[in-house]
Amino acid sequence: MKSSSARRLIAAVLCLFVASGLTACSSPAAESGTKVTLGFSAWPGWFPWQVAQEQGFFAKNGVNVELKYFDSYTDSLNALATGAIDANSQTLNDTLASVSGGAQQKIVLVNDNSTGNDKIIAAEGIVSVADLRGKKVAVEQGTVDHYLLLLALAEAKLTEKDIELVPLATDAAAAAFAAGQVDAVGAFAPFTSVALERPGSRAVANSAEFPGAIPDHLVFTAEFVKDHPTEVQGLVNTWFETVKWIRDNKGPATDIMAKRGGVTADEYRTYDAGTTIFTRQQNLDAFTPGTTPSHLNYQAGKIIDFMLATGLVKERPILDGLLDDRFVKAVPE
């Protein structure tokens, strides 16, 4: 789930000196000897990593990247939490769940916000979330669409106890709904396309109704950030160069991302409005402490409150150092 950014072409790799807090520019570097294993899964805001690989932007920015695609988003979360990979593409909600379980992680980049590509899709005759009472709803437990479902139920004055939750991986949940085995499903693009193949189906809630609730990030283990800041910077630089290339080469970029998502280019274009790619400035604004849903510290607090209230976590995690904006700040404007 989900649940990208747009901007700058970078010609140099920035070297970050953690101890002094200073940055210095170097000439374009050869690919680093330290390999970064980067995980991502099926979400439009993360498919630009596939573009970065195919266009050679990792090497151009001096980073040696092993890009690892996970068919199961949950598997990618577990891989980062256990140190099997160095970095992962994941939501704020799921990062907080990992941190509450003791994982040491750092968010270094906001890829995007989900603005409609996470949906609660229901069968014909179900016209609102309130109509889900007593119905079978498939969703991947503990992930962001489970969170979206709980938010939507709460707004309709319902709880999870008012439905029959069917726990399934997102791809299986969408397939089960399309086959008529459940009454509704919580899913993210591109799996929403599978779910909507069911005749008469419709979205009764989506992430656009909960602004800022589902931001998506590049998340590293804290140890890797401490030991390899230059590689982290190279990956952040790569991101902004990639999304600029996508903006300037929309057709070829869409073909690459659609292929990775297993959909047609035309179908992939329907996801554009539902995933808002963050610019560098939007990243800086999000990392700045504030009191609105656009600020990550505020959104993290709201998510934790909800997770505590629903029993998804048992105690409030310590978030000191989780949000690390050094690398976005070091990207040239």
From TrEMBL:
Record PANTHER family: ALIPHATIC SULFONATES-BINDING PROTEIN-RELATED (PTHR30024), TAURINE-BINDING PERIPLASMIC PROTEIN (PTHR30024:SF47)
Family per similarity comment: Belongs to the bacterial solute-binding protein SsuA/TauA family.
Signal as UniProt keyword: yes
GO molecular function: ATPase-coupled transmembrane transporter activity
Keyword vocabulary terms for this entry: Signal
Record-linked Pfam families: NMT1_2 (PF13379)
InterPro entries: ABC_SsuA_sub-bd (IPR010067)
Source species of the chain: Actinokineospora alba
Protein name stated in the entry: NitT/TauT family transport system substrate-binding protein
Signal peptide (residue range): 1-24
Main location: periplasm
Subcellular location: Periplasm
An example Gene Ontology CC term for this record: membrane
